[in-house]
Amino acid sequence: MIHPSAIIDPGAQLGLNVSIGPFSIVGEHVEIGDNTSIGPHVVLSGHTRIGRDNRIYQFSSIGGVPQDKKYSGEPTRLEIGDRNTIREFCTFNLGTAQDAGVTRLGNDNWIMAYVHIAHDCQVGNHTIFANNAQLAGHVHIDDWAILGGFTGVHQFCRVGAHTMTAAATVVVQDVPPYVMAAGNTATPFGINAEGLKRRGFSPDALLTLKRAYRTLYKSGLMLEEARAKLQEEVKAHPEIQPILDFLAVSKRGIIR
C-alpha cells in the first residue's frame, strides 16, 4: 500500500494498513496510525503524530516548521487525532517553544482545501473548516465550531463550541459558544440555532440560549453586568455554563 515512488524515512513509524500515494514524503519523526490514507504529493515532516483512520489528500504539507521568526529549530510537535479528513493543499505547522510546544487537531474534523492551521493552534473535535479558512498562531477552536470559507482568525483568538462564521469573516476577538458571526470585523448575529437543533439540543435549551444571547448582546448591559446576570441564571439553566466558562478564560475580549 506504499507507492514505490514515495520516500519514507527509515525512522518513520507506520501503523497497519497505512497507504501512501505517489511522490509523497514521510520524515524521520513522523508517526502514522492504522488505516490512515495519505494521498499523492503529500509532505509529512517534523515531530508529527497522526492517529488512525485519517484521510489526507494531495499536496498537503503537514508538520512544517512554524512561520514564526522566533522559531530556532526546537523539537516541537504536531498532533492529529483520529478520523479526520484533510483535503487538498492544507498546511499545518508545528508548535513553538513560546507556547505549549504543540499544535493539535482533535478527532472527526472535516478540513477542506487550502486551510492553514498555524503554530500552537488547538482545534477540538467535530469541527468543519470550509475552503481557505486560516488560523493564525495560538488560536483555540472548540468542538463543533464551523468556519465559513475564507474566514480568518487573528492570533490568540478563541472560537467557542457550536459557533458558526459566515464566508469571509475576520475574527479579531473571541467568539462565545453558540454564536453566529459574520463580517470584517466579525459581529454577532444570534445563536447557531439550526446547528444546535441538528445536534439534539431541545427546544427549551434553545430558548434558554437565545435568552442568554439577548442578555449578552441586546440588553444594553456592560459585559461584566451581563456576565453577573448570567451567573444568577445558570443554576436554573445549566446550558449557560459553557458561556460563563468561556468568558472566564477570554483574553482578547468577545465580539460585541
TrEMBL record:
BP GO annotations: lipid A biosynthetic process
Keyword Repeat: yes
InterPro entries noted in UniProt: Acetyltransf_C (IPR029098), Acetyltransf_C_sf (IPR037157), Hexapep (IPR001451), Lipid_A_LpxA (IPR010137), Trimer_LpxA-like_sf (IPR011004)
Keyword entries, A-Z: Acyltransferase, Cytoplasm, Lipid A biosynthesis, Lipid biosynthesis, Lipid metabolism, Repeat, Transferase
Enzyme Commission numbers on file: 2.3.1.129
Pfam families for the chain: Acetyltransf_11, Hexapep
Reaction(s) catalysed by this chain's protein: a (3R)-hydroxyacyl-[ACP] + UDP-N-acetyl-alpha-D-glucosamine = a UDP-3-O-[(3R)-3-hydroxyacyl]-N-acetyl-alpha-D-glucosamine + holo-[ACP]
Function summary: Involved in the biosynthesis of lipid A, a phosphorylated glycolipid that anchors the lipopolysaccharide to the outer membrane of the cell.
The protein's name in its UniProt record: Acyl-[acyl-carrier-protein]--UDP-N-acetylglucosamine O-acyltransferase
Organism: Candidatus Propionivibrio dominans
Lineage: Bacteria, Pseudomonadati, Pseudomonadota, Betaproteobacteria, Rhodocyclales
Gene name of this polypeptide: lpxA
